[in-house]
Amino acid sequence: MNLFLTTPVLFLRTLLFYTGYILLTGWFSTTGVLLFWFTPLAIRGRYLITWNRWVLIWLRLTCGVKFRIIGNIPEGHYVVMAKHQSQWETFYLQYAFFPIGIVLKKELLKLPFFGWGLKLVDPIAIDRSNPKAALRHIMEEGTQRLKDGRRVLIFPEGTRTPIGKKGTYARSGANMAIAAGVPVVPVSHNAGVCWPAKKFLKYPGTVTVVIGEPIASDNTNSRALTAQVESWIESELDTMLDKQSLAPELA
User: Fold this and answer.
1) Would strands 205-211 and 184-189 be described as parallel, antiparallel, or unpaired?
2) Which burial class, exposed, middle or buried, applies to 144 when counting CB atoms under 10 A from its CB (0-12, 13-18, 19+)?
3) Inter-residue long-range contacts of 97-100, CB under 8 Å, 24+ positions, other chains counted
4) How far apart are CA 104 and CA 107, in angstroms?
5) What share of the chain is helix, strand, coil (3-state, %, to 5)?
6) Where are the domains of the chain?
7) Which of 64, 57, 87 lies closest to 12, judged by CA?
8) Tell me, which fold does domain 3-245 have in CATH?
9) What is the pLDDT of residue 41?
10) Relative to the CA of 71, which of 12, 31, 147, 183 has its CA 20 to 30 Å away?
11) Tell me: the pLDDT tens digits for 86-132?
């Protein structure tokens, strides 16, 4: 038996990760508020996004979670539509595609420290209790950011799905891209293998992230564009998933 994969060891390694995670969050959020509240987003964003990178480094050191990237990050501005399986991709994608505004639930901004840092990077926060208002807000804020030359990150499934499962892909990301006249960059990954949704334990392994080629949003509609993105993401995920590499509780 691999002693590094026993539940007690995994628990201790995960606990160590979260201890450092809390300290990193407290440091970057507090210093970000104190030092960068009145600075331009380009300056404070670069500082705060370093937090994401350190979280991923600390995760690798404590829990053995590495990652590899297939594909390239395009230049320019566009909508990033990505699979949502865990928190891992929120850290990586915001860092890798910076400057980018992420669509997230408004409640996260109310969290001490964590919410402070999020607020400083100018996310698109929505109230999910009012779906119609949330959709309008996403369209207005997202389209404006895209026209200003920024990127927007959205998880079309809306919430984290367990590995091997698929949620309903919403069309808001495609609607934004069409309205702003920008392409969609699809991203698929298997982060749920190492960081399962809504689970405490983190499992050692390598997260594979596949970045697709930009998909044009002209001469199409949101339904067709969303279906194309969904098909690509799920197909890439099916290809990369290896049942033998799943965490014990997921196999």
Assistant:
1) antiparallel
2) middle
3) 97/73, 97/151, 97/153, 98/45, 98/46, 98/49, 99/41, 99/42, 99/45, 99/150, 99/151, 100/150, 100/151, 100/152, 100/153
4) 9
5) 50, 15, 35
6) 3-245
7) 64
8) Glycerol-3-phosphate (1)-acyltransferase (3.40.1130)
9) 73
10) 147
11) 999 999 999 999 888 888 776 666 677 666 666 666 777 777 777 77
Burial 153-177 (b: 16+ CB within 10 A, else e): bbbbbbebbebeeebebbbbbbbbb
Lay out the sheet containing 205-211: strands in order across.
65-70, 205-211, 184-189, 79-82, 151-154, 100-105, 124-126
Rounded to an integer, what distance in angstroms lies between the CA atom of residue 214 and that of residue 203?
32
Instruction: Determine which of 15-29, 38-52, 90-104 has the lowest per-residue pLDDT on average.
Output: 38-52
Q: Residue range 10-15: average pLDDT?
A: 95
pLDDT at 177: 94
Name the one residue in this structure whose structure tokens are 């984290």: 160
Query: What phi and psi, each to the nearest 5 degrees, are found at residue 151?
Result: -110, 160
* CA-closest candidate to residue 58, choices 31, 80, 90, 88: 88
CB neighbour list of residue 199: distance below 8 Å, 6 or more residues apart: 249
Query: Taking the alpha carbons of 172, 174, 179, 182 in that order, is the dihedral positive or negative?
Result: positive
- H helices of 148-188, in order, are 172-180
Q: Which residues of 102-119 are buried (b: 16+ CB within 10 A; e: fewer)?
A: bbbebeeeeeebbbbbbb
Phi/psi of residue 123, each to 5°? -80, 175
> How many Cα atoms are found within 13 Å in the side-chain-facing hemisphere of 222?
16
Tokens of 78: 């566009």
